[in-house]
Amino acid sequence: MKKENAPALVSGGAGFIGSYLVERLLNSGYRVTVVDNFSSGRKENLQDVLDNSCLEIVEMDLKKEDAQLSNIVQECDIIFHFAANPEVKIGETNPKVHLEENVLATFNLLEAIRKAKTPKTIVFASTSTVYGEASKIPTPENYAPLVPISTYGASKLACEAFIASYAHTFNHRALVLRFANVIGRKSDHGVIVDFIKKIKANPRQLEILGDGTQKKSYIHIEDCVNAIIRVTERFLNGNQTVDIYNIGTKNTITVKEIAKIVASAMNRPRIALRFTRGVDGGRGWKGDVKTMQLSIDKLLNTGWRPRYNSRQAVELATKELR
């Protein structure tokens, strides 16, 4: 994806995944505009490229209409939409957050794209949670029906639908990426971060939400960004209006196994594990998918290969975050 001075927009570019993507695009010669409201993103995530003359950071809340957004979109042929509230658990207590931060923000961005004078390509960061409790494991991109069990998954599925409809109606193109659990150095939420904080607070006992048998795929951020670049390049060279890719690994790891990895890395291998037993058959919270493994055959067919499996990704991310 070498693009000398080609303009790209990255919404949520100061976030975990977005900041890694921004660095990669800059290294590939793009001129990158980051749009972020810094509700979860941080400028420190971009500290290695802050002095890059091809980077512009615009503090903007996509929940609000802004004429400046239309001007930015007008100048960019490719838009990476990674802005969202990433916390699944908050949906149980404050579902409006996902409606506003995910759906409304996406709608306002799409409106700016609609009003642009030239065709655009939007690359959207979606999630494995759109599948809900899939009956087919590993779950392929054409699995149906999609029945999310969390408001986070519902909001992302709504965004996918809006994006696809705008692409077809207004002659744009859209690439949807459904991520497994992405982990790595800049992550500020998720199970590894939670375990590290809990062990620091209480080195004698580690509380684990649910029964510990929750089993999911994890992908390291390095592998994730490599996959984003590979499938985006493939999409740009094709002619499809809308396409969807799962981004993950070929295996899974349980929450209990992750707890043991984190405890060992923090020199607490014999820490007592206390399971809350959770809700609805051992889930950590309402909306927690018990088993998730994406089929990545379509991704592998692009020639991409992960460096790390789920366990290796967890071990590396734990080392980075510790």
Question: Which structural class do the helices and strands define?
Answer: alpha/beta
CATH-defined architecture of the largest domain: 3-Layer(aba) Sandwich
- CATH class (first level) name of the largest domain: Alpha Beta
| Helix coverage percent | 25-40%
Q: What name is given to the CATH topology of the largest domain?
A: Rossmann fold
Biggest sheet: strands, sense, closure?
7 strands, parallel
- DSSP E strands, number: 14
Uncertain runs with pLDDT below 50, 5 residues or more? none
At the fourth CATH level, what is the homologous superfamily of the largest domain?
NAD(P)-binding Rossmann-like Domain
Order the strands across the largest sheet as they lie in space.
3-2-1-4-5-6-11
Oligomer type: single chain
Average pLDDT rating: 95
Description:
The strands form four sheets. A seven-stranded parallel β-sheet has the order 3-2-1-4-5-6-11, sandwiched between helices. The protein has a three-stranded mixed β-sheet with strand order 12-9-14. A two-stranded parallel sheet has the order 7-10. The chain folds into two domains: 7-182 and 219-247, NAD(P)-binding Rossmann-like Domain (Rossmann fold, 3-Layer(aba) Sandwich), CATH 3.40.50; 183-217 and 250-291 and 307-321, UDP-galactose 4-epimerase, domain 1. Strand 4, helix 3 and strand 5 (121-127) form a beta-alpha-beta unit. The chain is an alpha/beta fold. The chain has nine helices and 14 strands. The model has no long low-confidence stretch (mean pLDDT 95). The protein has helices at residues 16-27, 67-75, 96-114, 151-170, 191-201, 221-236, 255-265, 297-300, 310-321; strands at residues 7-11, 31-36, 55-59, 78-81, 121-127, 173-179, 181-183, 205-208, 215-216, 218-220, 242-247, 253-254, 272-275, 291-292. Helix 5 (191-201) packs across helix 7 (255-265). It is globular.
